[in-house]
Amino acid sequence: xxxxxxxxxxxxxxxxxxxxxxxxxxxxxxxxxxxxxxxxxxxxxxxxxxxxxxxxxxxxxxxxxxxxxxxxxxxxxxxxxxxxxxxxxxxxxxxxxxxxxxxxxxxxxxxxxxxxxxxxxxxxxxxxxxxxxxxxxxxxxxxxxxxxxxxxxxxxxxxxxxxxxxxxxxxxxxxxxxxxxxxxxxxxxxxxxxxxxxxxxxxxxxxxxxxxxxxxxxxxxxxxxxxxxxxxxxxxxxxxxxxxxxxxxxxxxxxxxxxxxxxxxxxxxxxxxxxxxxxxxxxxxxxxxxxxxxxxxxxxxxxxxxxxxxxxxxxxxxxxxxxxxxxxxxxxxxxxxxxxxxxxxxxxxxxxxxxxxxxxxxxxxxxxxxxxxxxxxxxxxxxxxxxxxxxxxxxxxxxxxxxxxxxxxxxxxxxxxxxxxxxxxxxxxxxxxxxxxxxxxxxxxxxxxxxxxxxxxxxxxxxxxxxxxxxxxxxxxxxxxxxxxxxxxxxxxxxxxxxxxxxxxxxxxxxxxxxxxxxxxxxxxxxxxxxxxxxxxxxxxxxxxxxxxxxxxxxxxxxxxxxxxxxxxxxxxxxxxxxxxxxxxxxxxxxxxxxxxxxxxxxxxxxxxxxxxxxxxxxxxxxxxxxxxxxxxxxxxxxxxxxxxxxxxxxxxxxxxxxxxxxxxxxxxxxxxxxxxxxxxxxxxxxxxxxxxxxxxxxxxxxxxxxxxxxxxxxxxxxxxxxxxxxxxxxxxxxxxxxxxxxxxxxxxxxxxxxxxxxxxxxxxxxxxxxxxxxxxxxxxx
Amino acid sequence: xxxxxxxxxxxxxxxxxxxxxxxxxxxxxxxxxxxxxxxxxxxxxxxxxxxxxxxxxxxxxxxxxxxxxxxxxxxxxxxxxxxxxxxxxxxxxxxxxxxxxxxxxxxxxxxxxxxxxxxxxxxxxxxxxxxxxxxxxxxxxxxxxxxxxxxxxxxxxxxxxxxxxxxxxxxxxxxxxxxxxxxxxxxxxxxxxxxxxxxxxxxxxxxxxxxxxxxxxxxxxxxxxxxxxxxxxxxxxxxxxxxxxxxxxxxxxxxxxxxxxxxxxxxxxxxxxxxxxxxxxxxxxxxxxxxxxxxxxxxxxxxxxxxxxxxxxxxxxxxxxxxxxxxxxxxxxxxxxxxxxxxxxxxxxxxxxxxxxxxxxxxxxxxxxxxxxxxxxxxxxxxxxxxxxxxxxxxxxxxxxxxxxxxxxxxxxxxxxxxxxxxxxxxxxxxxxxxxxxxxxxxxxxxxxxxxxxxxxxxxxxxxxxxxxxxxxxxxxxxxxxxxxxxxxxxxxxxxxxxxxxxxxxxxxxxxxxxxxxxxxxxxxxxxxxxxxxxxxxxxxxxxxxxxxxxxxxxxxxxxxxxxxxxxxxxxxxxxxxxxxxxxxxxxxxxxxxxxxxxxxxxxxxxxxxxxxxxxxxxxxxxxxxxxxxxxxxxxxxxxxxxxxxxxxxxxxxxxxxxxxxxxxxxxxxxxxxxxxxxxxxxxxxxxxxxxxxxxxxxxxxxxxxxxxxxxxxxxxxxxxxxxxxxxxxxxxxxxxxxxxxxxxxxxxxxxxxxxxxxxxxxxxxxxxxxxxxxxxxxxxx
Lengths: 782, 782
What we know:
Two copies of one chain form a homodimer.
Chain A: H1 14-21, E1 54-57, E2 60-63, E3 65-66, H2 75-83, H3 86-134, H4 138-162, H5 172-180, E4 182-183, H6 190-205, H7 213-229, H8 248-267, H9 270-281, H10 287-310, H11 341-373, H12 377-397, E5 405-406, E6 433-434, H13 436-441, H14 445-453, H15 463-480, H16 490-507, H17 516-532, H18 536-546, H19 552-567, H20 573-580, H21 599-605, E7 612-613, E8 615-617, H22 618-627, E9 632-640, E10 643-651, H23 652-661, H24 673-679, H25 682-686, H26 699-702, E11 705-707, E12 718-720, H27 725-734, E13 740-743, E14 746-747, E15 756-758, H28 765-771, H29 774-781
Parallel strand pairs in A: 7-9, 12-13
Antiparallel strand pairs in A: 1-2, 3-4, 5-6, 8-11, 9-10, 13-15
Helix pairs in contact in A: 3-4, 3-6, 3-7, 3-8, 3-10, 4-6, 4-12, 5-8, 5-20, 6-7, 7-8, 8-9, 8-10, 9-10, 9-18, 11-16, 11-17, 11-19, 11-20, 12-15, 14-16, 15-16, 16-17, 17-18, 17-19, 18-19, 22-23
């Protein structure tokens, strides 16, 4: 429940109503009128500061919460730290590292198994299809190809639609939001993990234009979350050691490890994985975490290497060819001169332009898809299957449209080849000839990338084949991403980028003296940068993908150009998706107009904060919890007449824990520290189980009192009312806060000790502009 | 001036007395009794919370200040932002990028020139020496060799001692402190830059066991600082655009760019440079800065490549051989199996142990050297020259101690060679034989590393030669670092590490099946990690140095082991140096016992904060400034009886600016906003020129009033008195603060609006333990 502050007199908290109303994904009316058009925002946003806290996750409107990354300093937790023995501290440290190791290990194993399945399933599929074509049974070939793809997509989509709608898509935006402090429900659980694994295998082997990279990142994060909780729901382990991880902070660190392990497993790129997590995913970072993440990715690499070693020489079917480097282009010595600057710059500029255009169009397509997906499960399924049929038809038919090319012995590779992989597919061609488009389309996405990146093959691909390839993959890349299967964005973008890179090289072949395969690499990097706007991590990922260090300076150059050009048009694709999903992500930089408004003004625009007294009546606490959906309540005291005290902030979950334990006092008095400790351990308090609706109290109990001293965090973060919102946003984000108290600048009688309370939603630019429209004008002049 | 708070009644501020007393580095008594022993701390630390703010920089005690990274929100600055036009915003953005480009460009050019000089000077020296040896004129050879080295060291040391004592050493700890918020004087100026360039050329070509890597980082930082200020002192440019950079925040960002450019230029490692700045040097980091830093290092690489291109085929004397990759070992295909685990683990564990031991012994040596250096300029010079003579003797004589080895045609390289470089130096051997120790000792440090890293040469080096090499370089590595010349730590550690790596490979040759050259690489990486405790950045630097991606997983493994082992013994070498220099660096993690003390207790242990009224008498302001050395003063108001207001915090430099401008009011009144703006621009206020001693006022002026409204930062960061020090330290560091106000938790009449003020010194563990010794006992139990 998010933290808006409404008066206690409200009879029913709005937050719960919302949640009930939109629970059923089958109900077409659940998404309201707000999304009936392509132009309007997907979620209706309120125009006051108490903004919506609902988000669309996996095309389903969900209730979102903030995470408590702040250190809670209350009596019980403080006692827990103080009483921790050295052994317990060592247990904690050991567990942190053991968890990081396990996350890496499991991610590596699962990634290898996924790879193994995909390579074998799609390999067998391709082989049989090619055989049918060689026997000139073209229709049989088509129906076989399309049928298998249909079945695979069906499995992936049904799993995704029925069991885990949030497993659709890459999951990276939600991880990014989680690490920013926004929790989306049902995102990192066991069903998501399983659906993501099987769905990813199905979707990728069915030939859809999507990668397993994003899903692998999500799988890593799911593993991290499940490990830190000891499982989920009923099957949850109650191991004593796991209590150390029963807080949002340690879970956040582990999920960061999981995300980098995922990238590492996807690209076999340990350093790139760490940097991806650092540059793109994580909001807060410390040196210690850098090291732990690095440890996780190192574990992943060892596991991957182990699998490759075991599977060498065909022991795992069609898996295990190729080494640790996915697209090795290290055999080319790169020499470049001033003359190469022009085509390379062009690749960079085009990458920025096309990336921005891709973001723009994908945004529109996703809005359209959300409308379709909102119509229910069958609509989702139909959409996925339609895209699958279209993809199968395109991939199968198009190679017939290009003429056969004679093999050139200078290529030095088997030509033509009839196997599963191979750069020169014979397909429908006579002996001695190959079909260049079939080499690209009749292969897994990874093999297609390997073929288009191949070096020393400048004459291999015909210009028209490359144009056809680019066209079909642009269409597929736009229309595949939003369907209800686990899908990654990396590989589609790499394919598009490499195509236009090769095309540029072919068109400018008089000036482009670098190998055409390297142009494909540069194009892929440029388009990635133009769409995702990463720099250092992409650079390292491409370095680790291609193993050509000499290409590094030129890659850096291209990446910088593409990002600069892209940033001139729109935000990165992940930010677009975050916005589309309505996740309240806090941007690193405050808007310029935020300097012109003080937090005191924000507080004045909101209802008064709901506060509690240190020793409070049970009935008051229950009513406050029932009638609001705030998550934190300032606790005040009045030690002597005329003097008021800001005692601290108490969390909803802690109040619920107290009510459930029925720790009530017959008279209004302050308790001693040991009294609470007799009944509560810090572990009880850390559990976030149950809501206020589970609490049922007798009228006698309602007349008793609660002493909030032991549960109140006495050190909330504060800002003076005169602080500008810009500065407050920076403080809020850098310290990873959930609540921030506004204190008055005056000190004297009759002045309340707090002026208000700020939460994430209050500090989001969009919400502030809703309440203070005059700032929008200033915005334009800046 | 640092920010302790003493009562205003003190007749003379202590800070100035200190500074006067220790200004003369010639005075042997200046360092006091505190450092007369090897065991006692170098700087006498006070036992109250008002701790010393003096640091030893370049063996000279200096006055240090904190930096103002906080956004100052006062009327004048706020008006400046609001009135900034779009053109000015674009100017600012353009300038930021132009500066980052210039920093990269100049660092690249200077690094290339330094390289060119070193290669030519030491090349010529070696050639002539070898010729003398070949003519069997051994004594002439020795005196020539030692004489040239002596002269080169003399130039470097004299420059360093006379013109810029702070240019001695690597400079990285000071940059690290600067980016943490600690300013050391005379660190990033023009003399430092020049001395560092020339001194580095002299010191490295004289054959001393030190690298140019640390100095290059310092050179990059100096360039960044000078560019952002438009020069120094009298020659400072007063270009209008530069006013955007007249604040500590933008300068910090640019210095980060400079530091990464330096690393990039040293190792030709653009990504490694960025990561080094991120992992080791910088305290605060944002995504935008990652990108700008990356742009700087990309520029450096382009410049380096340009120089290499121009200098190809001997056009620059002996510079320009070798490409962009310093120690290319990419010709070996790395295959490793479970059996290799044992020797590789051993290399890692040894790296950690030796690294920790190196840190420990170097610490002792530096303490000894500080005693010597404190005796004056002549002592410093004598020490440097003594080390030079010892080095020359060792390098010249030792190769005579080993027998000659017959050339093996399998090596495939010129053997024996008589030129400047070459892996098989003939030296004193007959034709067909080479002296393996001469190959390592009679070469520049870079060439020596290249030789010991060379692959496919497992039989090249004899075990006894390697032991001699290791022994001499351990001794030299310990005793060279602290002398008064610009010196880097990287290369000495790489040399030691590669030697023990090769030794391990030779000793375990039954189990070590990986190439011996790669063992040298692993040894170097392990020792670096064991001493400097970096992980990701080292990994990338080694990847970019050696261009062997297949080595990456095993490098990660070794680095993790070495860091873990090293961390069990002592902190990293940079932390040791920071501590030795007395720089008040704020650690990322608070001590565990800091949870047991509240900021209110700290405030109670200090003298009351010195406050000012919003409209204050000139004489009071002048006296406050003269009698204290605080840098920030809380400003209070009393809008109506019984009510007091915390108006904000005013900085010393702003008060001095007001006094110098004589903006006084004849009567006690509050001014309008435009009145101050008529006299002050935000640019005037940002200038930190002048101290209170420059202000001379007439008695009439002293009786007038100052309205502090326009100059007061109305949004200081605040914490409630109940906050634990642990949490306050995290807030202080993550928000890069200089002052933090403690506010009372009570609200009522007669309660002061602030309880105290905290600065960096108050939050350092050592100082708190001094004032609260009972916490030290708890410390042990944790």
